[in-house]
Amino acid sequence: MIKIVLYGPESTGKTTLAKQLAEHYNTLWVPEFMREYLQKKWDTEKKLVEKEDLIPIAKGQLKLEKEASQKVENLLICDTNLLELKVYSEYYYNGFCPSEIKKEATKNKYGIYLLTYVDTPWEADDLRDRPENREEMFRIFEAELKKQNFPYKILKGNKTERLKSAIEIIDELLKKN
Known about the structure:
Blueprint: E1 2-7, H1 14-25, E2 28-30, H2 33-45, H3 54-69, E3 75-79, H4 82-92, H5 99-105, E4 112-116, H6 134-148, E5 152-155, H7 159-176
Parallel strand pairs: 1-3, 1-4, 2-3, 4-5
């Protein structure tokens, strides 16, 4: 089975694309556990992510991915993974990331990372907090992929262009397997 990861800064169309790709390939997509977890935290406590949230978020993401992996045969679309959590943790907490997350995040078990560029309109919500930092975050996300030597392609353009590019990339991967 090939796992595809949508990876990149906030508000760059990852969830939209995950849904589109899952529909196109008639497969499942793994939602971003952190969004659900943190939205509940915001709704009940009016707080954003804190260090003690990182391990529960990581465990929740891994659980969702494992459950979805058991239900598909050929292709799984992941709307984020632990590498994204690692990047955000290190960014928000001055280089800190729990060792368990670092260890799991740097295991490459994905066919390709589709790195979403920041050329989509910013969409504000309760959890997104740095619209002015998207280019900086994009560079950090790409640097992490290079550091880990993980395979990736950058997706740019509007929703239609990104979907078309992603399908071409995934079709090539599927041909090879």
